[in-house]
Request: fold
Amino acid sequence: MLHEFTSEQRQFIDECLANPKMAAWLSKYRDEDVPNFLAEYHLGRQNWLAFGKSQVELEQYKLTQAMTEADEVIYSIQQKKLFDLQCLWRAEKEDIEGVRFSGDFARLEMEIATLDIITPISEEDIQVVKDYLLDYRWSKNKQVYNGWQDYGLFIDEHEESKQFGFPNFYAYVAERTRSPKLWRLLPDIRGKKEARYFVAALKARYEKSPKEKQAVAELEPVDARPMLYVHSPMEAEFAKLFDTYATNECRKGFYTKRGDKDFELEAALETLKYAGEQVKVEEGIYWLEAIKKAAFRYEREQLVAAIDGAFENYLFRRKMGISPAKPDLSRSPWVGDPEGRGKEILDGREALGEPRDFNF
Reply:
């Protein structure tokens, strides 16, 4: 119990007692308790305002997060359609207005909300993306792409790149709708032509510059042997071959200890902690996996619920002829310098004695 009050607490007590409505409410309780209650309330209030604000902001963010993500999710539908169109263009089976070379797809990716070269989003499209988001096998890990149209990164000889990943959503849509995986079926004719011009431009640039030509000539022969670095299978092999059993056991224990932190579990617990409602956990599976799946389901149900609103806004904007805000291309480092890539192609064509245009 508080008996000595600070000047701020005393002022707060006096203000409360001077307020008729507060005084009436306080009169229901014992007089001896009122000053201590108000003093402790004042102290608690200061803590609420100082430390509780961040929690309020977090909860507000979580309420709006699903709405913000929903707007982005519905346009992933359009990214898949554009990627299919890019595959057709690369195979020289489709001409696309405004596309001169592959770098233009970086620009179209950023303009996806305003593109009129692909079909509008349909209710069927929305249902497919909802099912994808709720499918733990396909969308367990959220994939955020800063380069939905980066064909060169995603595709390696008609196969999805294992090193840099491939949008799971693309593959899911193809399987769900039983549509062909064009990136596997169609050749990259256009890409190979561009690569030829890139090489020609590079060669011409070195030949025109005596300084660069001399520098290249003086380079030591390239060592074709593989790179060697620690924290790798090579390190493990070296330790096994040349170090003691005790050292190898300690090495194993070191990496096990460092790798035992389960970030997925921490993220799941954080999600459930601020869910604001009871979330059921699936029975009959390992508790760690059950917690992760419960957080996944809760988070995705919030997102799926927000998608309907995002789709309604999309339909309303189309009906009223309201265009979304123009994209800020500076936000996407992947866009890089598509015009610079185009210049390289033109330089390469000129170096090979061909017209300085994109008609190839």
Summary: The chain has a mean pLDDT of 82. DSSP finds 17 helices and two strands in the chain.
